[in-house]
Amino acid sequence: MHLMTFMEVVRPRWHERALVLAVQGVFFNAYFLGYLVSPKFAHRVTGYLEEEAVHSYTEYLKDLEAGKIDNVSAPPTPPIAIDYWRLPADATLKDVVVVVVVRADEAHHQ
Questions:
Q1: What is the extent of the structural domain holding 41?
Q2: pTM score, two decimals?
């Protein structure tokens, strides 16, 4: 759901979507091979990725609070995030990151 929320915020162009699709294809195959060789290694990689996600969202939150990212309420929080996480209708992007939503969910996956 995090992906869908930020896709609504960023609205990537076709070439950005194509790049993401290509990178996902490479990562999927590399991860699959890694899992075949060592499931323990693959699970550890997943843990590291989740930890990095928590760090990234924390840095994003610091930038929001420091005012480095303009118009925190514009674009408005996508309806998909409001519905999924049951946020108030006037929620901002900061609310999406702070309200246990994204950061805590990622931390839970570690």
A1: 2-109
A2: 0.70
